[in-house]
Specification:
This protein is an alpha/beta fold. The chain has two domains: 361 residues; 31 residues, no CATH class. The protein has seven helices and 29 strands. Strand 1, helix 2 and strand 2 form a beta-alpha-beta unit. The longest helix is centred in the N-terminal third of the chain and has 65 residues.
């Protein structure tokens, strides 16, 4: 009986103790929960403050850039009649230096450029609106540039009054014209406008070529009428007479832009590293009524430069352009050489009413695919109502188990990678002799008779092979590749003759 009483008493003592202990534990938990809640509240408040600050910064940026959305100033530039110290705000007080006008201009300003050759500030050879490869810091400007004006600015005719970017004895490492136009991070207002219209981009007076000599196969001279022998790569030093200066891979017109962009009524001739090479942000780019002739690598390449979520906000329209004699990267004809390239990062691309002729790899290339399959399925690669002639390939496609597939113009509708628009592609119809006659005759004949001679040789007693044998290394031979034509200079002044030769197709007479 005593043992039972003691047990009950002990149980009562334990029971009496547990609520007090539980209250302590619960209190500790309550304090922890309260502390965590307070920490979360503090974090939320801090995040709210940071978001408010960021929103204020975004709003300030938007208001700052939106305040520039009204009509801008007009600057006048004439290399022959302008003044180095003029403000350029009237035809009578025109600037002399196009670079100076670009530096002075602000968003929404317009620059009118008279005929003549523009070499950049202090004749450095190139023009820039923002630094090449640094659009995150060098945002550039949303401005419009119109060449083709008479020196008194009373008439605009891009054929009659040619505005040239044509270096002649300059050595530089930069695009001939770099154009950045970006809004700052966080900007949420309307995007600006960029126009490049009526300029001639010509590297032909500056490129390094073999001197023409039809009697020396090393020079790559197809006939006596072609101006030069073949163009040289960086690492070449053939033992033949040479002319010109630059052998690097500088672009002609490079752009890193967004908004509403138009490149029109321009001539890209003898460009050794693309005619137009662009990165496009959110917005629409129109490339129209241009002549691309004798460019290396590719005539036109535009990549989307946005996150996957914004690809649907990027579009490109490439139409009414004349694209001739695009050359490969090297004299072996093994790489590049496309007239137009369908690239990634752009939801809708329309390529129509162009003339593609004599392109050494292909007129049009569609070999790139979005890494995201859904993005690829939504892509529109429209190729319709174009004329083709004498291209190595009219359309080049990627293929599983094979490097590429060549598609002729009359079979483009069978290419599933093209569409939803694919109709109307065909060979250049008969009856367009005026267009063919406008092409430099010697250059066209040279291309149509293009041959590539490859020879290999092995000399076991050469110094290199004797040393290799001593070291247990493989023997070496030499390979010589000699095309009878490759990237030769096209007469730039004749390029303008191609405007308006085929009604409705290719570059028309500029308005």
């Amino acid at each position: 009986m005593k043992r039972l009483t003691l047990f009950i008493a002990a149980a009562l003592c334990i029971a009496a103790f547990q609520p007090a202990q539980a209250q302590g534990v619960l209190g500790s938990l309550k304090n922890k929960v309260t502390g965590a809640a307070q920490n979360e509240a503090r974090k939320a408040a801090q995040k709210g403050i940071e978001n408010a600050k960021q929103n204020a910064r975004d709003k300030a940026e938007t208001e700052k850039w939106a305040s520039k959305a009204g009509p801008g100033k007009t600057y006048y530039v004439s290399v022959s009649t302008g003044s180095a110290r003029a403000d350029g705000l009237s035809p009578e007080n025109a600037m002399k230096d196009l670079q100076k006008a670009i530096n002075a201009a602000e968003d929404n300003d317009v620059i009118y450029v008279a005929e003549g050759n523009y070499h950049g500030n202090l004749d450095r050879g190139y023009i820039e609106c923002g630094k090449f490869g640094d659009s995150s810091h060098e945002l550039g400007k949303f401005i419009s540039i119109y060449g083709g004006w008479s020196t008194d600015f009373t008439e605009r005719d891009v054929i009659k009054h040619q505005t040239l970017l044509q270096p002649s004895d300059h050595i530089f490492t930069a695009p001939l014209f770099n154009f950045n136009a970006r809004r700052p991070y966080g900007y949420k207002g309307p995007l600006g406008e960029v126009v490049v219209d009526g300029l001639v981009f010509d590297f032909g007076e500056n490129n390094r070529y073999c001197v023409a000599n039809v009697d020396d196969a090393r020079t790559g001279t197809p006939n006596k009428g072609v101006l030069t022998g073949r163009i040289l790569a960086d690492d070449e030093a053939p033992s033949v007479p040479l002319e010109g200066y630059l052998t690097g891979d500088e672009y002609a017109l490079h752009m890193d832009v967004e908004g509403n962009v138009r490149v029109s009524n321009c001539i890209f001739v003898n460009c050794r590293d693309y005619g137009l090479n662009a990165l496009m942000g959110k917005g629409h780019m129109e490339v129209c009524n241009n002549i691309f002739i004798a460019c290396k690598y590719a005539a036109c390449q535009v990549r989307g430069n946005v996150k996957d979520d914004d690809i649907d906000k990027v579009s490109l329209d490439f139409h009414h352009n004349t694209v001739l004699f695009t050359w490969t990267r090297n004299k072996t004809f093994s790489d590049m050489g496309q007239g137009f390239r369908f690239m990634n990062g752009i939801r809708t691309i329309d390529v129509h009413n162009n003339i593609f002729g004599c392109n050494s790899n292909c007129a049009v290339e569609r070999v790139y695919y979005e890494s995201n399959k859904q993005m690829e399925s939504l892509k529109e690669s429209n190729l319709y109502d174009n004329y083709f002639f004498a291209n190595k390939r009219d359309l080049e496609l990627a293929a599983m188990g094979k490097s590429t597939i060549s598609v002729s113009a009359d079979r483009i509708e069978e290419a599933e990678q093209i569409g939803p628009k694919f109709e109307g592609n065909m060979e250049l119809p008969k009856g367009n002799e005026a267009f063919l006659n406008a092409i430099d005759d010697a250059y066209l004949k040279g291309y149509m008779s293009l041959t590539i001679v490859t020879s290999e040789s092995y000399s076991p007693n050469s110094t290199a092979n004797q040393i290799n044998r001593m070291l247990g290394l493989n023997q070496q031979g030499t390979e010589i590749v000699r095309p009878n034509m490759f990237g030769n200079k096209y007469p730039w002044a004749k390029a303008k003759d191609l405007f308006g030769k085929v009604s409705g197709y290719g570059a028309q007479i500029p308005e």
